[in-house]
Amino acid sequence: MCVSKVILPTPVLIILLILNISFVSSHRYRHNDAARLHRASQRSYDHQSASPSSSSSSSSSSSSSTKASSTAPELPGFYFDPEKNRYFRLLPGHNNCNPLTKEQLQEKEREKQRNKMLAEDDKPNKVGLLLAHEIKVSGMRRHKLEIQSTDNSSPNMDNFRLIVGDSACERVFTVNDVSHGGCKYGIMNFSSSSQGSLSVEMCDNLYFTNRKVNSICWASVNYPDSHVLLCLVGMADTPGCVSLLPASLFSNSNPDQPGMLCSFKISSAWSCAWCLNPQFDKTFSTGLSRRVIVKDAETGRTQTYCVGSDVLAQQFALRVPVLFNGCRSGEIFSIDLRQRSRGDQSWKATRFRQESAITSVRVLQDENYLLAADMLGQIKLWDVRVTKPVQEYKGHYNEHAYLPVHVNEHEGLLLAVGQDCYTRLWSLKDGHLLRTIPSPHPAANDLIPSIVFSSNLGGSTGLPGLLMAVKHDLYYFPYNTDYQEREQQMTRFDKASSPDDF
User: InterPro entries under this entry (predicted)?
Assistant: First the structure.
């Protein structure tokens, strides 16, 4: 039997050789660490993209390397670390053998960004071409406050959940989560010194409840801010209720009579508001599931308005007895208390809508304008006369949390804390984002800061600034440019007066 040899042309042999090499390389790539491939592509990229002058300049080389790492190809199942310049295997889930997950990497990046912003906040601010309005905001520096009680101890070891200041900002009502369940609430009293420092003292009496506090507002029953109105969510066999508590209950040293103390059984109350209009000065409202209840606290007379959605946010206007409501459906509507409830909802004086559930409504002093925030992170300023948004404040972050907005018209500021735990300040007039303040603690859904901003923290002669409660700590950010200078002068004076100097 004769076997003849087949002689292939040289070009065909070369093609087969290339295909074989390609197959072997592909096989190795699937079984080896992906970092080798990147390092090879990195050298190739640097060689192709390097300019003649880059070899003699270290800065150009560094720039080229950074550019190359930023264009590293995404490989399924791998994570590229630009600092170590290599890939790491990334699998779904996590255990001891696989410490890297996508969620952990995202958390690491967020924490890195937060620490960077905290470091920037600690540096002396660069004024540059900032306007006076922006200088004050950029100069706000964090100062931790010591919370004292009457026995000179620091009593608060439970995480803050809510803080709400009274109209004079001499007192702040606090709600803290208790580790074994439920919450406690009380009042902090503030005072300021001529040296520009702020002191805070916790009240004598703290009250505990095994129910969740959904909403709080100050109420003027006997005199301005004489009471506190709380919405408590029902649980198990305990129904929900709205409680009207005299502020004097929270102090053993107050000789005054407590005043009116009452509780109304109301289930699933999402929000509450107190009316300051003289015609209805003992009236409060609660927003429920598909209902709004307006009640006279003295007589108990009740008016019920049926709506098509849960009412998550409420506020009364001052000059006219009108209640604004924000719903889970995104609808915002007003109720004129002088009109009776009717089944056709013709009592809705004004109605307009945003794209998501409304978490906060704030009526401006003009009362023709209303601020509304929703669960898409949108904050809009509405002209209620034409039901059109006239300004939008961008940058707020919210996906599903029940988060308020705060406005200080005297300073021209709008403030909000996002679900990402960043506090943002905007110019109320033009919507410009003036400042983003990171939380002093790592971000978490149960550690979203609660804030109060006032031009007079501690009373009429108090200090302007921002209070931030997060975890079990309380911080003060002064809203003036000379607070830091006065503090530094006092520190230098104390050092100069030290016995070691004599």
Answer: CUL4-DDB1_E3_ligase_receptor (IPR052254), WD40/YVTN_repeat-like_dom_sf (IPR015943), WD40_repeat_dom_sf (IPR036322), WD40_rpt (IPR001680)
In angstroms, the CA 488 to CA 491 distance is 5
Dist. CA 494–CA 488, nearest whole Å: 10
With CA atoms as reference, report the closest residue to 297 among 274, 315, 314.
Answer: 274
CB atoms within 10 A of CB 197: 18
For residue 468, the SS3 value is strand
Instruction: Determine the Cα–Cα distance for residues 64 and 49; give it in Å rounded to an integer.
Output: 8
Bridge pairing between strands 423-427 and 379-383? unpaired
Contact 282, 246 (CB under 8 A): no
Instruction: For residues 410 and 407, give the distance between their C-alpha atoms in angstroms, rounded to a whole number.
Output: 9
Q: What pLDDT shows up at residue 75?
A: 74
Angle value at C-alpha 451, between 450 and 456, nearest 5 degrees: 155
**pLDDT mean by block of 10 residues, the chain; 502 residues:** 49 51 44 45 43 39 43 74 75 55 72 78 57 80 88 70 95 91 91 83 88 92 93 80 90 62 81 95 93 92 92 96 96 91 77 96 96 98 97 96 95 96 96 95 92 91 93 92 51 50 39
pLDDT of residue 93: 56
CA distances from 52 to 46, 47, 61, 65, 470 (A): 12, 11, 11, 15, 54
Please report which helix (H) or strand (E) contains residue 80, including its range: strand 78-81
What DSSP string runs through 302-325? EEEEEEEEEEEEEEE-SSS-EEEE
What value does the CA radius of gyration of the chain take, rounded to a whole number of Å?
31
pLDDT of res. 149? 78
Q: In what helix (H) or strand (E) does residue 129 lie, and over which residues does it extend?
A: none
pLDDT of residue 212: 87
Backbone φ and ψ for 226, nearest 5 degrees, come out as: -80, -20
Can you name the residues that pair with 147 across neighbouring β-strands? Answer: 200
With tokens 């992906």, the residue in question is: 34
Q: Alpha-carbon distance 111 to 284, whole Å?
A: 42
CB 179 within 8 A of CB 158: yes
Q: At what angle do helices 58-70 and 34-49 cross, to 10 degrees?
A: 130
* E-only strand ranges, 329-440: 331-336, 348-353, 358-363, 369-374, 379-383, 388-393, 405-408, 413-417, 423-427, 433-437
- Sort residue 64 into left (φ over 0), alpha (ψ -120 to 50) or beta: alpha
Residues 6+ positions from 153 with CB-CB distance below 8 Å = none
Note whether 337 and 280 are within 8 A (CB): yes
Q: What is the pTM for the complete model shown?
A: 0.75
DSSP designation for 246: E
Q: Residue with structure tokens 């005199």?
A: 223
**Predicted local confidence at residue 123, as pLDDT:** 65
The residue type of 45 is: Y
What are the φ/ψ torsions at residue 286 (nearest 5 degrees)? Answer: -135, 140
Q: Tell me the sheet residues that pair with 200.
A: 147, 190
Strand pairing partners for 388?
383
Contact 87, 75 (CB under 8 A): yes
